[in-house]
Specification:
- The chain has one domain.
- It is built from eleven helices and no strands.
- It has helices spanning 5-22, 25-45, 56-85, 88-93, 99-127, 136-163, 167-172, 174-179, 195-202, 205-217, 225-252.
- Helix 1 crosses helix 5, helix 2 runs parallel beside helix 5 (99-127) and helix 6 runs parallel beside helix 11 (225-252).
- GO terms for molecular function: ABC-type transporter activity.
- Residues 25-251 form the ABC transmembrane type-2 domain.
- Belongs to the ABC-2 integral membrane protein family.
């Protein structure tokens, strides 16, 4: 690793974050859809949905947070694709900087911008009646899960951004990811689903992540859900990282 890797990465992070703050519409756009869905499900459908809690926004919030992350990482793919198309990545490679710092700058920008979006959504949820009496440690655990989930999907986005042939192709991959929470326990308990749908919902990553976050925030026993959630997040992140670096290095040669 280049001895200047961290300083180079901080420069790349600063560059990408300046783009974010100059165009806050990306964060606003990421927040609008999940907040609109939260309002719709709580105030329109919430009364008809039977869950294990009287406060539906408490049940709903974990899934909404994952949808926000899945929406936000599409902008990472878009920014990487545009840098590649404009020859900016090649220009950076001709400079005496760590080559991987360019990619890491985009990944950390995704993490920071998604954290901002999640904070905004949680604030709206608090206004809508979300409450959690747990202490600092459960919140730190929830934060850790969300960070790992964001990093995992961001590396998936990096693959799409670096290998996409068009803007639409680079960002379209996020649509199935946004749809996954709908076939999970994010909105309704899975025992209300048909057997085939329930089998898929119970064994896909979103359900275990949602259940782990929900249990932590409601001060309930987490059980194996947290370990399954961590295994999914870390596994996806490692596999996506390996493939993203291969695509990135192949394009840099």
């Amino acid at each position: 690793m280049n001895k200047y890797f961290f300083s180079d990465m901080s420069v790349m992070l600063g560059r990408s974050m300046r783009h974010i703050f100059r165009s806050m519409d990306t964060i606003i756009t990421v927040c609008i859809t999940p907040i609109a869905m939260m309002l719709l499900f709580v105030y329109v459908f919430g009364g008809a949905i039977q869950t294990s809690t009287d406060n539906y926004v408490n049940y709903l919030l974990p899934g909404i947070l994952l949808i926000a992350i899945a929406s936000g990482i599409s902008y990472t793919a878009y920014r990487l694709f545009m840098d590649k198309q404009r020859g900016i990545i090649e220009r950076f490679h001709s400079m005496p900087i760590s080559r991987s710092a360019v990619l890491w700058g985009h990944v950390l920008t995704s993490l920071v911008s998604n954290v901002i979006s999640l904070i905004v959504i949680i604030l709206v949820a608090l206004i809508m009646g979300f409450r959690s009496s747990v202490g600092v440690l459960p919140w730190l655990a929830v934060t850790g899960i969300l960070v790992l989930f964001t990093l995992a999907l961001t590396w998936v986005a990096a693959i799409a951004g670096l290998s996409g042939k068009s803007v639409e192709g680079a960002s379209a991959f996020s649509y199935p990811l946004i749809f996954l929470p709908f076939i999970s326990s994010a909105f309704v308990p899975t025992d209300s689903m048909p057997k085939a749908v329930r089998a898929f919902a119970d064994n896909q990553p979103v359900t275990s992540i949602v259940e782990a976050i929900r249990s932590l925030l409601s001060d309930q026993p987490v059980g194996n859900d947290i370990w399954i959630a961590l295994a999914w997040c870390i596994g996806i992140m490692l596999v996506a990282y390996i493939f993203a670096m291969r695509v990135y290095n192949r394009g840099a040669t």
